[in-house]
Amino acid sequence: MRISTLTMFERNASSMNRQQSEFLKVGQQFASGKRVLNPSDDPQAASRAVGVSQAKAVTQQYMDARITARNALSQEENVLNSIGDAITSAKTLMVQAANGTLSDADRGSVASELRSIYETIFGQANATDGNGRYLFGGYQDNSPPFVKGAGGTVSYEGDLNTREQRVDASRLMPVGDNGNTIFRSVHSSAGYVAEANAGNSGNVTFKGPLVLDAADPGYGNAFEVSFSVSGGVLGYSLDGGATTQPYKPGEAITFGGLSLTLEGTPAAGDSIKLAPAKDMNTDLFATLEKAIAALDSPSGGARQQAALANTLNTVMRELDNSLDNVLTVRASAGARLNELDVVDTVAGNRMLNYEQTLSDLVDLDYVQAASEYSLRMVGLQAAQKSFVDIQGMSLFNFLR
Asked: Where do the coiled-coil regions begin and end (predicted)?
């Protein structure tokens, strides 16, 4: 069979090109650290690697979302901590103001301190996250949630929604709380609050109420203790009932599983209302405004002193409820932060599994690749040498 010179050159060139291509491919694998450079190298592994990479990318997105959620919850927790400290300071001032030896000037000084705490809480209620978004406005986070009206009364302008963020495939987490929940609500466990009628003309004061029996059929209802004079005898009745009991100063009266201790001398028509905390004033700002107004008012007579004592008693109970509510919301934020840590740990393990799977699918085995590299280099050198030897052969070399 006759083999032309062109055919010989083409076959040898094709062999060298193939050997060089395989040699360069191993070099690319070394440079990239990947065994699968193109889907054609291992179609099955390449297909699985795409799926794993997508799952890894989704997991990374959730990790980024958790960073945002953690920042928001951390900021809220810090603000709630400051608000809790401020309410505690206000309670301390209320105890100080309840001291009967204080003069009007002394109470005015306490009112000035309380006003400063009021402004601090108001500022914290309108705190932002550093990007201009208000923390406690719900989804209305582009404007201050709390606004002072013409009379200085604070109103809530945010909505009642809670901002949420998906932090994992199966977890949609609240990343904030609205201001109504924090500053205008009480915890479900809050008990009763008593408040004297602002129009009382006597000097009756109250302590309590205390819970005696939460299983009483009347427990949970609202009550009103009204005072009247019949036949020259001062008495009281519940909810305007016809039955009147004689009034004895210092003696505790019981009803609906509650106990209320009264002191002083009420006038006919005076009344004291008792109701579950959720049905009374739950606005922290209104509580502070009420306390400041009472402290700024002169208390020269017995009626004024009784009104001050009753207001401070009511304010103390409302501040206790507000503090419990703030601490409950803060504990919830802390629990969500802990949950993020747990989800991060699980996601970290998942990412390690994805990395290992990708490595098994497409990463290079350097020991095997080094052997392959040497083999391809020898093959390329052999092809080059054989081509040189063959292309130099001629029939004339064998003619004598």
From this structure: none
